[in-house]
Specification:
By secondary structure, the chain is mainly alpha-helical. Helices cover 53% and strands 9% of the residues.
Amino acid sequence: MKFSFQSQNHNIIYNNIENWAQVTLIVSFLSVMNSVLSLIIPGLWFTGYEIEHDKFNDFKEGKDLIESLLVFYAIVISTLGILIIVFFKEKPLTPPSFTATVKRYLKCT
């Protein structure tokens, strides 16, 4: 079965439509895990922080914790981004159709 999607004068043909359910399941699961981790990590990061004790120190400990958390996020995101750039292929190893093997150029209008 083939599915054709027309978008801005580009025709994209997808084969193996049966795999879409698996892809949707994986993306949904990763989205939920991202939400869960984005709530859990800051809570774990700030374990033991007491704002009442930090008031007298101009909130230096809290600022340092936030800065280190942002550095942690930057390292994780940069590492994943570099891995994606290095290992992501422009085209799949086996083209879904003959037209996928043709090199396309973007037209600037």
